[in-house]
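Researcher: First entry.
Model:
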Amino acid sequence: MRERMEDYLRKNFDVEPKRPSEEALRRWRQAVSVVKNPRRRFRMVADLAKRAEDDKKRKKLQRRNSVKNFVLPDVVSVTQCEKIRVALYVQKAALQFIDAGNKEAGYSLSKEVSDAGFGISPDELASFARTHDTKGVEARGGVAGLAGDISVSLKEGVVSSKIPVRQNIYGLNRFVEKPSKGFWMFVWEAIQDLTLIILMVSAVVSIGVGIATEGWPKGMYDGLGIILSILLVVMVTAISDYRQSLQFKELDKEKKNIKIQVTRDGRRQKVSIYDLVVGDIVHLSIGDQVPADGLLISGHSLQIDESSLSGESEPVDINQKRPFILGGTKVQDGSGKMLVTSVGMRTEWGRLMVTLSEGGDNETPLQVKLNGVATIIGKIGLAFAAVTFVVLTTRYLVNKGTHHNMTNWSMKDASALLSYFSTAVIIIVVAVPEGLPLAVTLSLAFAMKKLMGDKALVRHLSACETMGSASCICTDKTGTLTTNHMVVNKIWICDEAKTITSGQNKDLLKSVSEKVYNILLQSIFLNTTSEVVKGEDGKNTVIGTPTEMAIVEFGMLLGGDFKSFSEEYKIVMVEPFNSIRKKMSVQVALPGSDMCRAFCKGASEIILGMCDKVVNTDGEAMPLSEEQRKKISDVINGFACEALRTLCIAFKDIEDPSSAKSIPEDKYTLIAVVGIKDPVRPGVREAVKTCLDAGITVRMVTGDNINTAKAIAKECGILTEDGLAIEGPDFQKMSQQEMAEIIPKLQVMARSLPLDKHTLVKQLRNVHKEVVAVTGDGTNDAPALHEADIGLAMGIAGTEVAKENADVIIMDDNFTSIVNVARWGRSVYINIQKFVQFQLTVNIVALMLNFVSACVSGSAPLTAVQMLWVNLIMDTLGALALATEPPHDGLMKRPPVGRNIKFITGIMWRNIIGQSIYQIAVLLVLNFCGKRLLKLTGPNASSILKTFIFNCFVFCQVFNEINSRDMEKINVFRGMFNSYTFMIVMICTVVFQIIIVEFLGTFAQTVPLSWKLWLSSVLIGAVSLPVAVVLKCIPVSLRKQAAKGHSDIHEPLLRGPELA
């Protein structure tokens, strides 16, 4: 049966964690047949119809935007392609005609706008970027003129004190969002449960029949008890669901809260995207998301990816002739400054967002699988309920026939049949585990909230699950394994290596000439993307990437003045650093001369290869001999072996710059080799050891020199004696067979390109069947993050493009936080298994107890109110108790869960079947022989027995819930008192049970029990604990054979009482 169930789940309820196919999503929806409350069950499931509708709207808007960006060619040939382009041109002309009509109608300047000190209306200002109106911008005096109209200095930026006025006139940078559901909406959803509705109708009828037969108020108690129980179930369910929704809303807000670099009050600072206003000067660099519509002020090689708006994959060059930048797009290359002209709902992105409804995130594999489990159990429960109703009704009719009363029907008969129907419905209520899929959501919401506190923002729910299965982590070095607080530690210049200490200044280079000193400072302050700005305290602060900051700070330590160099030299061309070029180049005009000078810095081997000369102590360029080249290579390797990042700095004078269309790539003069220290983060070595103990292989993938990479990897405990370290270019040259052979031993890949990382991830996933987590921070890391099972983007160093393609954002860029994600991922998986084990046990016992009792004695021992209470214990309260257990250290001493693992393992079946046999046997014996065994006599004997059976049943579940805390270890109490949610649920369950039995007997059909019977109930429940110990000593065969078409299947849990 277990195999058939797993095959059924695999066939119908198997989806990929990332990018599941539309077919798989539709297949499992069609397979779900027994659902009591679709609105609640599928609340956290993607709405495929809405998603398809949104896709159509998005494509329609993208076509419209692509028309706006279309430029008519000079020559139109009569081909089908050109006819389409002419049609687009006509459509573009029509759109421009409409906009022109709007302008002729006039953008009037309201009194409110003019009184606020602005010279242009919000709608007119927004129209420039939206319609790419070059003439309109020129008519207003260009970007500088528009800046005057909105009262902002292009140098100083917005004045913070005037921000409220700007927000009042030009709007907030927020989109109109669908209002979130209120608490009563969740109550309404919870009450949509079909079985609860049927029970409420039955209860109302029962009240009517009861009053007619037994009089007021006695006749109403049974029906009223059911209604009150239903209301309790609905309220508890709604409160749990509402709290989850608040957690997801908070996480969603955090995901969208991007930090933007702006110039305000004359200084550069970071602000939230929500605080951006019209007039802000925004700094853009590679990988940034454009936060609003605007116009280019200045920039270098700026390219924007507008595919999100236009659908066009080709990047758009932004320059003074085409200065329009639209919000929601991304910076693909270059850098620049932008004047914000419209925010929020006036942007093109805002207009797109308002037309789209929420299609929802894809459901996770566990959610889908548990929907399958719920469907199977629901079908079984439905069959049992139908048979129970038929058996009870048949017995009643046979009994009535034997007494020749078939023709005499009264309200008492109607009441009996209604009671049988209610019993059947109650069996369905308990048998269909509606809470199974929702327990996943509860556990994930809890884990995501806790991970936020541990500096990890989970963007996709499925990542939490998948991280628990991770068998390999491919991590960056800089900022993840190291602190990212860089300082220049060594420098080689003029054939001399020097060590830098924090107290040194210009005297450090007293052995070199003034000419060498000046050219070094030029190369530092001109060839950089960093800026030196004054902070609020008046002190100079360097803003930029850690490497750039380290070099600029070194230049300032030498006595250089960043501002004076920036003002003296005019930058002509810039080629920003990226992970493919591995260098940054800049060309500047030399003052008082027609010549230009190019500066270049970057990866040591690359820059050294571009040089044919070297600066001597007098500042003269001398030919670089092979012997000198080898000596410099030895210096570079020496720095690298000390775990220093090495950079070479070079320059080249260009006598005829007019003929050069790009910055030169060769014949440079080497100035210096710089060694930058980036210490390993505290705790990284321990975190790596934790991963290795957990069966997770850690591989370092870095763009650094191989000697630097090996030194850091050894310090972190990643590179072992039998491990392999290679360079990216060597890896790419290998055949598929060679890759397959070396990857198991590969621990370090240096000088890697994003393509190398992507290739490695594909090999690990497809050939070696690993579950791969990959870290990334750059724009070019996006393909590897997208390809990996779990993409981990860096929150501090990461670009917005990297974050958008990631599943988890590591807010502090720390490797230890990645290990925390893995720990919580394992916890989610294990917690859901615990809950499933617990709930299936309750399902089986409740089904069999009611079914057997009904068939044998003609009545069910548990009433409708009692079963509803049991349903609440095993559903919402059970999920709260077991699905929110925090992780423990033992989780990271197990091997990772394999791909396509059987979710309900042999170990779980052993525990379920063993506990079910014990509980069913005890409860049935009590049901049929209880009066004799307990020596109950008198008129209340039956009521006392039924109450005692109910009490025993509940305490069996209480102690089985404790057993379920660990499916393998004998000591289930370890850490229990530290799990506050679990303890609160346990205490509440026991307290409410006492109240129901002792004080609510009128509604629950119970009677007060003596202290002896209470003690007996607790002891019968507590016997579950030694039963569990015996069960855990029974070995379970750990079958590792793969299912057809699947591989890497193994049990996720260790076994045996030795783990107690």
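Researcher: Second entry.
Model:
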Amino acid sequence: MASERPLLIPSPRIQNTQDLFTVPVLLDLFKSNSGRPGSFSGMETKNPAENSSSVEGTLNSSSSRRSILSSRSKASGGGGNSTREVSFADLGSKPVRHGSRGADSEGLSTSQKEISDEDARLIYINDPVKTNEKFEFAGNSVRTSKYSFITFLPKNIFEQFHRVAYIYFLVIAVLNQLPQLAVFGRGVSVLPLAFVLSVTAIKDAYEDYRRHRSDRIENNRLASVLVNNQFQPKKWKDIRVGEIIKIHASETLPCDMVLLSTSDPTGVAYVQTVNLDGESNLKTRYAKQETLFKTHEKEEVVGLIKCEKPNRNIYGFQANMEVDGKRLSLGPSNIILRGCELKNTEWGIGVAVYAGRETKAMLNNSGAPSKRSRLETHMNIEIILLSLFLITLCTVVSACALAWLLRHKQELNNLPYYRKWDYSRKKDYNYYGLGWEIFFTFLMSVIVFQIMIPISLYISMELVRVGQAYFMIRDTKMYDEASNSRFQCRSLNINEDLGQIKYVFSDKTGTLTENKMEFQRVSIWGVDYSGAKSQIEPVGYSVQVEGKVIKPKMNVKTDPELLQLSERRNDTKEGRHVFDFFLALAACNTIVPLVTDTSDPTVKMIDYQGESPDEQALVYAAAAYGFMLIERTSGYIVIDIQGERQRFNVLGLHEFDSDRKRMSVILGCPDKSVKVFVKGADTSMFGVIDKSLNKNILHATKSHLHDYSSLGLRTLVVGMRELGASEFEQWHSSFEEASTAVIGRAALLRKVANAVENNLCILGASAIEDKLQQGVPEAIESLRIAGIKVWVLTGDKQETAISIGYSSKLLTSKMTQIVINNNSKESCRKSLEDAIVMSKKLTTVAGVTDNTGGSSEASPTPVALIIDGTSLVYILDSELEEQLFQLASKCSVVLCCRVAPLQKAGIVALVKNRTADMTLAIGDGANDVSMIQMADVGVGISGQEGRQAVMASDFAMGQFRFLVHLLLVHGHWNYQRMGYMILYNFYRNAVMVFVLFWFVLFTAFTLTTAINEWSSMLYSIIYTSLPTIVVGILDKDLSRRTLLKYPQLYGAGQRHECYNAKLFWLTMVDTFWQSVAIFFIPLLAYWGSSIDISSLGDLWILAVVILVNLHLAIDVIRWNWTTHAVIWGSIIATFICVIIIDALPFLIGYWAIFDVAKTATFWLCLLASVIVGLIPRFVVKYLYQYYSPCDVQIAREAEKFGTLREVGDVQIEMNPILGPQRR
């Protein structure tokens, strides 16, 4: 039996080359009792046969902060109230339950069912030919590019034509190729669409070229592969499943491989997953004992691995391995994934199980979900209206043409401008009869008026968003010096949505706080060693090793009294408790100590690497009090205790999970005793502590915990007990059986852990401070004044969350708190009903509800809702959701505690699906990914928890306080610019269409155009395109200083002041008037003259270009040399182009501009058309701004005349912030 166990501590059969200690080991303790020498030599420190869906999580006081999407299976808990978390594959295959009740019973996880032959892949170790014989598995060549040389053109064009407007312009271009409908030249009609498609295609081609180049570099990297019993270099792209690969220190893994052997005699390997999930902390992986000491170059390894099919779950792996006739179970701790780096291990050998596109890294390489701008969605409504208007214009022209043809039916043969009879050939010209003529007239009208739908708008929006993103990225106000990270714009589609946010959903740890834990307070055996007398040691604790000084990388505040007690060891009763407490902190963790060099060759630093900042803080604290963790292997740890190095055999370790909310380690101590040390959340620990012992100590510890939580500190409770020989043997037998189980492994391991983690003696509690990030209180206050509701969703306990809420100004003393902590659906229903009644009384004053949290004599009492995750289990995905939304919408603040990742997404969906308001989610960890992807806008904080949130986000930044600049400044600017640019593009093209329409009415509805076809084509490309793009990127309606000083100005976006149906129709009315002025003033001036149609067309196109550019100039708020250059340059460019076109003898209208420009009438008409066209706009704009100004206009006037500097803190009256709009 012992030989079948995985190696966890050095086996007596193994020559121990690290025999550095004289402390007696535990191996002889139970030999006589067990009858099996070395019977527990196979126990692992880390369970290598872990549940395939369990996370490699480490201890954390929060039950959800370290949890990851796809981390835990549907059946990982067994408890009815446990939180369900699903894999990425689950998200696509079935509806996601954001609540948790009942979710556990939906199915068995992969760890609880045998892998069937149909659901498994078979890998023959070191036999890639046989492995790939039946099923040809994917090669290791990866391809992140979208196109090949052959597929680029068809595929890219197909993708671009997903925009319906492009299909519209394609139809127009095709119609213009028909002889009967050829209004413009056939080549000219295709150019606008071809230009837009070409610009986008060039951009896509460049991006894909970079992907191809990256793929080529990646695929041609070299790895050592076992070929003919020798490791030989081989390109990554040529590696096949089943081959044995050797990886050296600091090398990157080319594929997913099961670890077979390492340079460490205990089979441990350390890997860094920063390329996979962004986490820089080291993680441990293990090789099985049965394969550990096979020298692969001399002894051929033969075996079979039966594993699950490729999936996206990077934290789970389920497999069995048959080697030398033994069947071994494999878990997440036995596999190393592509993209990981081998660290602190000389070499590692493994067998490839997933390669290329089937690796977990590539399966997860899908990027953030594509989101669409709310403004662009609303724009589609106006596009539809313009389409209907276009059809109306074409119908009017067709109807008029029908009436005209019927009226002049007898004259058609002789009319000089509509002669259907060809006297020379004695037959009709191409006259197809009345019906077809009207049909062709309709289609020709569509071709002539096609620019009513602005094709240039789409390319302009893309260019403007790129420009806006550039300036956001370059903004030094959003540069984080601490992490040396700039703002990242990962999605260019939703820049303008940043100016319309109404709800912000924020994580707490690492988002509002720094996630840099500092050990602050401790309670040991009922005594609170507070920070009142604390001091920071100038040097800190250090030890001497081989003539060199080793000291911790970080210094920790220490209490002088506690420091003296820790130095007394076991001399006194208090000293024994202090000894056990700090021993637990130093030993009960998965920290890896790394010794690093310093500038002084005699001094070395010890850096504690771990997945959790909490664990790092606790181990540094233990070191400061003289319990320094020096070394960790898979079988033992070495701790320097007050200058004496002691070795403790790690007989077993039960890692933290969200069900138990604690972790434990079983140590073989130097005195041959066996002790179990446990630490975890207070809610979990007090249930397993023997309450019959030390009641006074228990009561005092609870009181200290409450005080710590009230200060916003993160707390942990520590306990221990000693195991007898029979009890240890019973645990060991159960642990061994659970570790090697193939079915239900996770549940069995949890059961074993629960059996040993009971009747504990409490040692004390620790308190860690997670400080608020700089500027968080001020940022939250600004967001609240801006009318943005801030909801905090955290996994921390309620007291801690409330304390952070006060310190961050999320909660104020004026707020009435409504707390909902229930354990049943009915109690939740009753609490919600009572809370709704109370909130209505508190928030209603004379029938007006205020959601700003502002204070005045008549303002209502602001309400804060505090609800825990257990209550959300019964509320989400049930009929109680509507009641929760009703209550939350009346609250100024919502604080959700102890929530799981999918519950965070459920809260966002609760608001998103019931209001028309925009939502933003911000977080820093993998447990925030679902929330970030659910919200309209997702923001990732590049913090301590890796880059999972950043990789899933639309925007990323280093600090929460940058959110103020992102929303109140850039969000406001982007929304104002984009809203204006869309309306301006509609106006600009509609003016041209109306001018063409008026001309049709005077040409017997024959769709003859006075404006040269080349000028029509260049109108949207050269004449008027650059000004709108530059203004959309550079114009600022208000300065940064004003926007930050008066956050209420952000309400303009929430109220849709820059783009709405009212503005659209006013713009169309203005367009109608301007087109009348442009067309009829020259027409009347030249009525009865002999001017030719081309000369009149040149006058009209010049008048249109001058007027629309002056229209834009009137609305420009902040001028700079670029704006001047593009606006006046566009007008000059138009004159130059018209001159060039008219100078070409092979084009219609040769020399027209030269003849007409000689006359004074031409210039007078040009001037009169522009002045008459713009007068109504001037008048309306003046009256509106003088008698009914909006907030932005008031602030702009104050800026213009320097009032802001003069009035100082005088308040500017702003429009009220309205409540949420229901869908």
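Model: Note on the second entry: Residues 541 and 624 are 5 Å apart (CA to CA).
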